[in-house]
């Protein structure tokens, strides 16, 4: 073997080693970036059961306690953590204002306290370059759930005879529906028997097998059922709610406009057997403004819009609710 040939082979070996080291470094960097991406984007917090703390209902409750507590949860980009829960101004066009304002005008706070959950209400684009500066869906949904849960826990502890009405739109409907599900299975922040009803508009976890449809009943399902299993930084599609709404199934109402991809997405979109049927529906969603038009979406033959229906339904529940004694 010549000295020149050995030198060439030695150089070739060093070059291969350098290439392997470079590849390994790239892999490590990519893994670190992806890991940080997931951490910064946020994971959905684990649900912590918070069963009601009042074992025996009191015979009376404090004077400041309302007969009925309405909890409204706005959708994406319709709230803010610093918003006034009794006079929301973060988004003057917030859909839930079409429900909460009529109720506040109709009832005294002692009869029905109307609380709008203030939370970040954002949904960042996980692949935006540069980053769009918004909170991820996971972080936003987790914050909204925690704020609503904490409020209900505190109200339940203070006001053992108050009844509850929950309502939400879009991301807010997912949060309200998740709370209703936990209440209905007995580990929520209030007792199931104290909830008069739940109304969900454009619920991303809509399951036709649970709840009561109001207006047209689309053939599809919520986007989180359609894309169940999808888990990218900041966006976790959690699938169907286990056991639906439990004891609240017969008191939970679902409003979903056909072709709204948030609540009327193709079932099992990730299943190879459903790819063709799912692809055929894509055209329904592109440029479709229906998700932003629930204030004018008609749900019955009388021309009642979705928000008019929810406001009227809630008012009826409030009117029929008991008036507990105060101490």
UniProtKB/TrEMBL annotation:
Transmembrane segments: 18-40
UniProt cross-references to InterPro entries, sorted A to Z: AB_hydrolase_fold, Cutinase/axe
Entry-linked Gene3D superfamilies: alpha/beta hydrolase
A Pfam family assignment: Cutinase
UniProt KW keywords: Disulfide bond, Hydrolase, Membrane, Serine esterase, Transmembrane, Transmembrane helix
Keyword Membrane attributed: yes
Family annotation (SUPFAM superfamilies): alpha/beta-Hydrolases
Superkingdom of the source species: Bacteria
Single annotated GO MF: carboxylic ester hydrolase activity
Family statement drawn from the similarity comment of this UniProt entry: Belongs to the cutinase family.
Name of the protein this chain belongs to: Cutinase
């Amino acid at each position: 073997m010549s000295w020149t040939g050995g030198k060439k082979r030695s150089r070739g070996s060093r070059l291969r080693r350098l290439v392997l080291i470079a590849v390994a470094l790239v892999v490590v960097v990519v893994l670190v970036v992806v890991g940080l991406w997931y951490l910064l984007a946020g994971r959905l917090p684990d649900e912590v059961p918070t069963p009601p703390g009042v074992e025996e209902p009191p015979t009376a409750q404090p004077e400041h306690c309302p007969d009925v507590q309405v909890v409204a949860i706005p959708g994406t980009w319709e709230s803010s953590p610093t918003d006034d829960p009794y006079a929301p101004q973060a988004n003057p066009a917030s859909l839930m204002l079409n429900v909460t304002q009529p109720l506040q005008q109709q009832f005294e706070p002692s009869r029905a306290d109307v609380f709008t959950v203030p939370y970040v209400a954002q949904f960042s684009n996980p692949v935006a370059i540069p980053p769009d500066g918004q909170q991820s869906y996971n972080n936003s949904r987790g914050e909204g759930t925690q704020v609503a849960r904490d409020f209900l826990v505190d109200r339940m502890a203070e006001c053992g005879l108050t009844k509850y009405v929950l309502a939400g739109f879009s991301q807010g409907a997912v949060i309200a529906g998740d709370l209703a599900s936990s209440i209905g299975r007995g580990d929520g922040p209030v007792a199931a028997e104290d909830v008069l009803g739940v109304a969900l508009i454009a619920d991303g976890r809509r399951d036709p097998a649970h709840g009561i449809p109001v207006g047209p009943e689309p053939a599809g399902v919520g986007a989180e059922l359609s894309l169940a299993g999808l888990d990218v930084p900041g966006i976790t599609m959690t699938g169907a709610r286990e056991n639906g709404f439990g004891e609240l199934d017969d008191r939970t109402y679902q409003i979903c406009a056909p072709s709204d991809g948030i609540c009327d997405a193709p079932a099992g979109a990730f299943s190879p057997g459903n790819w063709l049927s799912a692809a055929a529906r894509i055209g329904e969603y592109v440029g479709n403004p229906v998700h932003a038009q629930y204030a004018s979406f008609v749900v019955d033959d009388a021309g009642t819009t979705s928000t008019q229906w929810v406001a009227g339904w809630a008012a009826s529940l409030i009117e029929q609710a008991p008036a507990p004694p105060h101490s």
